[in-house]
Design goal:
The complex is a heterodimer.
Chain A: E1 3-10, E2 16-23, E3 28-32, H1 39-47, E4 57-62, E5 65-68, E6 81-84, H2 96-106, H3 115-121, H4 137-149, E7 155-159, H5 167-183, E8 188-192, H6 195-201, E9 204-209, E10 212-218, H7 219-222, H8 226-229, E11 237-248, E12 253-258, E13 261-266, E14 275-281, E15 285-288, E16 299-308, E17 316-322, E18 327-333, H9 334-340, E19 347-352, E20 356-357
Parallel strand pairs in A: 3-8, 3-9, 6-7, 7-8
Antiparallel strand pairs in A: 1-2, 1-4, 4-5, 9-10, 11-12, 11-14, 12-13, 14-20, 15-19, 16-17, 16-19, 17-18
Chain B: H1 3-35, H2 41-53, H3 56-66, H4 72-81, H5 89-113, H6 117-125, H7 130-141, H8 143-158, H9 162-167, H10 178-187, H11 191-216
The chains are: A alpha+beta, B mainly alpha.
């Protein structure tokens, strides 16, 4: 374990945070939940940016060393962490390079990631002489990420790093972070309220609500669950792992294998026999009881109903469908639910209207 | 040396000493005031500001009493240094430091308060110790504050009169500063020398202020320390 923490704090406002978390040595652990759920506070406590008051019970251990307990407190500058917050917080009195150099000066002899590496990983060469005020939000956040990595030997903590940048830059930065998470040998703790980001990046999830952890588990178990998706409205959806098979040049389609079944994605020529990750919005999945014979929809998967969201006043419900291993979510109306009289265990067919491919780096050059 | 030149040297020596002492003592005090949530601030802040509103002669009167060898401060000084404190250059430095303190503290405290806390948090997660944060971040980000604080303290010491008149006397080479020399010239109706000193002080003060305003307006410093 990289980190074991047990936290029980109470604020004068009445807010209470109770959490036990374990962060393994590798991969991305996500702290996910709505705003006000305590996920950012939890991250700031792990970083040492907040330390609670005397009546709070906080124990944080990292690889056997105490970071905080009743009597001890290691300040953030001695934890060798990288921290990226919602605002890039680039130092305004110097350039991008100046910011990176300062980070190097702050942590001169502890090893970890070096300056030249972060510049090439995050493709910062063209920005080095710019002042932070002249960078776009996305660029500034990329520099902030680079700066946080220099000399970091223990872990990378990210607090809603994409929350205040435009949508186009978000996708680019997500790709960078995903690539880093596979390159770096240190664990990443990622805080977000965006399900898409979490599904794209995380290996493990802690779900927080009102200051406590309501569920935790691997991405595979929890990522596409009703629990995580039920309050997400149009953002509810599933993330699935596929294998690329071949490309049909005549129709411009690529064939994917998913849990022994086949899917087509359009317009893209992919490297074959690699893992691809796709995202399927729940509202673009519909359910039929018989396999449709004459339909314009190409992607139809056979699945078993494994869960149905408790109906509320809302006109629609989420239905959880199991392929072989992976879960696909469908959003259908309450009327359809009654009409089809769906039950857990029933075999159905899922028609998928749209799929987006997430690993853009799989696109081959030619 | 011409007595007026000697007075000029004493004045400059005093202003430089006061500015240096304030940089050492006033800077941490300004930082503490800018960050502290302690209740003691309620008392300490107006106490520091007191010299702005008090007539210098009031301060000078109390210093005169406190610096006497049979009083606490004067007594401690006598024990430590071996010579009396009253009517010495050192007594001028101590009194001037207290008199100039608010002019040093206030601009600096304001500059420290306007530093975005996020920068300091970022620096601490980047591995910067409090001392490194101070020298690599706080100092460059509050550059304007330091320039204003330093030059105000310096200029106020140059222009000081009332306190020095009360505690320093007019000992050439020791406590006779420009403003006292000017006063002496006027007293003895020596208007020509008085004109030279008076005009000299006006020109000097103007040049100093001009330099501060120019430095603080340098285009590179735009958005400094702001959010």
């Amino acid at each position: 374990m990289f980190l074991e923490a047990s936290i029980n704090i109470k604020r004068p406002s009445g807010f209470q945070l109770q959490a036990q978390i374990d962060i393994p040595d590798h991969g991305v652990t996500a702290l996910f939940g709505p705003s006000g759920s305590g996920k950012s506070t939890l991250l700031r406590l792990l970083a040492g940016l907040e330390r609670g008051v005397d009546s709070d019970a906080i124990t944080i251990m990292s690889r056997g060393a105490i970071w905080q307990d009743k009597s001890a407190f290691v300040p953030p500058h001695q934890r060798s962490i990288g921290f990226v917050s919602q605002q890039p917080q680039l130092f305004p009195h110097t350039t991008v390079m100046g910011n990176l150099k300062l980070a190097q000066k702050f942590r001169p002899t502890q090893g970890g990631t070096v300056l030249a590496d972060v510049i090439s990983w995050l493709e910062l060469e063209p920005l080095l002489d710019a002042r932070s005020q002249h960078l776009s939000g996305g660029e500034a956040q990329r520099v902030s990420l680079a700066r946080a990595l220099i000399g970091t030997t223990s872990c990378l903590l990210m607090d809603e790093p994409l929350a205040s940048i435009d949508t186009a830059s978000k996708t680019t930065l997500l790709e960078y972070i995903h690539r880093l998470s596979t390159t770096l040998s240190i664990p990443i703790i990622y805080v977000s309220h965006s399900l898409q980001e979490i599904q794209f990046l995380a290996d493990r999830i802690y779900l927080l609500q009102n200051g406590s952890i309501v569920s935790s588990g691997s991405m595979l178990d929890l990522g596409n669950s009703l629990l995580l998706n039920k309050d997400q409205g149009d953002n509810a959806g599933s993330m699935l792992t596929c294998e690329t098979l071949d490309h049909d040049a005549q129709y411009g389609l690529t064939r994917l294998a998913i849990d022994q079944q086949r899917l087509y994605v359009t317009g893209q020529k992919l490297t074959t026999n690699t893992h691809a990750r796709i995202s399927v919005p729940a509202r673009d999945v519909s359910i039929t009881l018989q396999r449709p014979q004459q339909s314009s929809i190409l992607n139809i998967l056979e699945a078993t109903v494994v869960g149905i969201e408790q109906p509320t006043n809302a006109p629609s419900v989420l239905v959880s469908l199991k392929l072989e291993q992976q879960i696909l979510l469908a959003r259908i109306t309450r009327k359809s639910l009654a009409h089809l009289s769906l039950n857990v265990g029933q075999r159905v067919f899922a028609q998928i209207k749209s799929i987006s491919l997430l690993n853009e780096n799989l696109l081959s050059e030619d | 040396m011409h007595p007026d030149l000697l007075a000029l040297t004493v004045t400059l020596k005093l202003a430089i000493s006061v500015t240096l002492v304030l940089a050492l003592i006033g800077t941490p005090l300004a930082w503490w005031l800018s960050q502290s949530t302690s209740k003691a601030r309620i008392i300490i802040e107006p106490l520091i500001a007191l010299p702005i509103v008090l007539p210098p002669t009031v301060l000078g009167f109390y210093f005169l009493i406190a610096f006497a060898p049979d009083q606490m401060i004067g007594g401690i000084w006598l024990k430590l240094v071996g010579t009396p404190l009253a009517f010495t250059f050192s007594s001028l430095v101590i009194a001037s430091c207290i008199y100039a303190l608010p002019f040093y503290i206030q601009p600096l405290q304001l500059a420290f308060e306007s530093i975005n806390k996020g920068f300091l948090e970022a620096a601490s997660t980047l591995g910067a110790s409090p001392l490194k944060r101070f020298f690599y971040l706080i100092v460059p980000l509050s550059r304007r504050g330091f320039i204003t604080a330093g030059s105000l303290a310096f200029a106020h010491t140059i222009g000081e009169f009332g306190i020095i008149l009360m505690i320093g006397g007019s000992i050439p080479g020791e406590t006779r500063v420009l403003s006292i020399a000017l006063f002496d010239h006027v007293e003895s109706l020596n208007y020509q020398n008085a004109h030279v000193l008076a005009l000299g002080l006006v020109v000097f003060s103007f040049m100093l202020l001009l330099a501060i305003y120019t430095l603080n307006r340098s285009p590179q410093q735009k958005n400094m320390g702001m959010h």
